[in-house]
Amino acid sequence: MSNSISPASLHHLLGIAPETPLSIEAMCANLRCVLYPAISLTGRLKRFCSTLMEAMRSLGITAEPFSESTLCDGRFTPGTVILAPGMFTDKELAINRVSTLYNNIIVGIYDEPPPLTPEALPQERLDAIVGRLARDMVHILVYVTEQSWTICTMNGGVVTFNTPLPATEDVRRTLVPKLTAQVVPPRPEDLDLRPASIQVGNSEFRIAAEDFLGCSRIWASGNYLLTHTSTDGLEYRNDFYRKIVARYLDQRSGMSYGFFARQLPVAVKPALLCNNEYPEVEEGTISVKIGEKNMLVPVPDVRILTTRSGCKKHCLNSETDLVEIGLDQGVAYLKTPAGLPEGTIIRPSFDTLTILAHALGNAIIAGILKTLRPGSLFTEKLERKGATMTHWHGYPESTMLPAGYFVHGRDNPPVSCSTPQSAAYSLFGKIEALEQAILTGEEYLGDVHIEPNHGTNIVGILTLKETALLLNGIAVPNAGSAERLHRR
Q1: Which of the residues 102, 140, 252, 424 has the least number of beta carbons within 10 Å of its own beta carbon?
Q2: In contact, 82 and 105? CB cutoff 8 Å
Q3: Smallest Cα–Cα separation from 336: which of 424, 14, 479, 344?
Q4: Distances (CA, A) of 119 to 125, 127, 161
């Protein structure tokens, strides 16, 4: 992963704090953990946690046992990761000792196998994970057995290590990234809300809606897409914890996984080649390093139609389940459709920042191509028809990928979705994908962002329906080929 865009530009474009740790080394340096054990622990959990704490300290992580000195006014210091092995009564739960819902990550560690059977469908596995998270009021689950230990996360990610005790390298490469960034849904105050401002009857919306609905029907034909976990169906210890979960999810009716999005046409301006290594950034541009070239790229406004948070992706209603997000003169906004039924809950997607990162990345790449490869099909399509984005919690076979789409991200730290790191890796990866295309001399038509332990983003000039056909194993003749796409 090469940081082709500076931390200052990430902050300018997406509001990502410059101090956000993007490498595993930076993550270790920023991490602070406290062991908060139950009154009674099994021997297996004692050995596991002792080894885990030793591994963390060897990585330079601050890791200490719980004591009153680890608290401030009876609460955990914001930013502290709480490792909570064992079983707790309601009043003993670590959630009772945090000051706000988003200040601390709590990890439940259990002496038992994970509640996941090999024959269970992906949705059943996800529901089991989310159900335990809600019952014990934790953010991450770790299951320990005699032969292995398993990490389960809110996005349905499951990673099993076939060792009874945690190896330092496994802690560094896999656990640390999951502990580094909190999964936080965007708050309504983070966006300029523009209610009832999408006109569902205009031609632009109707064309896009037809693509969304066709895509939804294809995904509904299989079990590949994780759809929706309702908060009403979860088991809570009491009404107080039910309210905490509702507040944590910003009053969403449930959690949906993945997204479909159509970036609307972009007015692309060509990038400027610069001779000096650190060009002076002009207003409305960012500095991007691609290969050995330094370029100033104009950053246009971006608009994206996308599925609303909590909707059922496999049975979309185009008049209620689509929203528009975007950046207007650097201001993030959320538009909702006119004529919504009373009581419809509209919330920004957990993946809002990642969606915006992909849209900006597409515009940046189109500007670079306009200079380096005039007549680029990607640029022409983005300006005339836009681009599409599909995110789901699975991984495509290489034979499913269309021509002209370049893969990146396999070696990135496995961060959770909806984190600043996930958005940053999306943007960096697009530049890497373009560099691959330039190096091989191939036509760039899109990118495939593999997110370890999480899922895949496939972004480019195919329609949502065409992408769905490919990813569900349905052949699309000459998918992604320049000859075919030029005819559209």
Answers
A1: 102
A2: yes
A3: 344
A4: 10, 14, 20
d(CA 368, CA 373): 8
Q: Please give the average per-residue pLDDT across 255-279, as a whole number.
A: 83
Distance CA 289, CA 277 (A): 9
Cβ neighbors of 476 (< 8 A, separation 6 or more) are 402, 462, 466, 469, 470
List pLDDT tens digits, range 87-140: 999 999 999 999 877 779 999 999 999 988 877 777 778 788 888 888 999 999
Q: What kind and span of H or E run contains 244? A: helix 239-248
The larger pLDDT score, comparing residue 480 to residue 97, is at: 97
Cα separation, 104 vs 34, in Å, equals 11
Q: Quote the radius of gyration of the chain (alpha carbons, Å).
A: 23
Q: Which residues pair with 65 in a beta bridge?
A: 35
Regarding beta strands 446-451 and 405-408, do their DSSP bridges make them parallel or antiparallel, or are they unpaired?
A: parallel
> Which H/E stretch holds residue 131?
helix 122-136
Q: C-alpha angle 251/255/258, rounded to 5°? A: 135
Beta strand extents in 117-247 (DSSP E only): 140-144, 149-153, 158-161, 192-198, 228-230
Q: Interior CA angle at 171 toward 42 and 350, to 5°?
A: 100
| Token output for 319 | 């008049």
The pLDDT of residue 367: 97
Rounded to a whole number, what is the distance in angstroms from the first to the last CA of the chain?
A: 34
Interatomic CA distance for residues 460 and 465, integer angstroms = 12
Q: Is 118 exposed, middle or buried (0-12, 13-18, 19+ CB in 10 A)?
A: exposed
Q: Which two tokens stand for residue 135?
A: 């019952």
Residue 210, classified by CB atoms within 10 Å of its CB into exposed (0-12), middle (13-18) or buried (19+), is: middle
Distance CA 421, CA 22 (A): 6
Q: What is the pLDDT of residue 1?
A: 57
- Taking residues 321-326, report their average pLDDT: 94
Distance of CA 255 to the CA centre of its chain: 14
Q: How confident is the prediction for the chain on average, in pLDDT?
A: 88
Mind listing the pLDDT tens digit for each residue in 159-187? 999 999 999 999 999 999 999 977 777 77
Tens of pLDDT along 226-257? Answer: 666 666 777 878 887 777 777 666 656 666 67
- Cross-strand pairs, 288: 5, 295
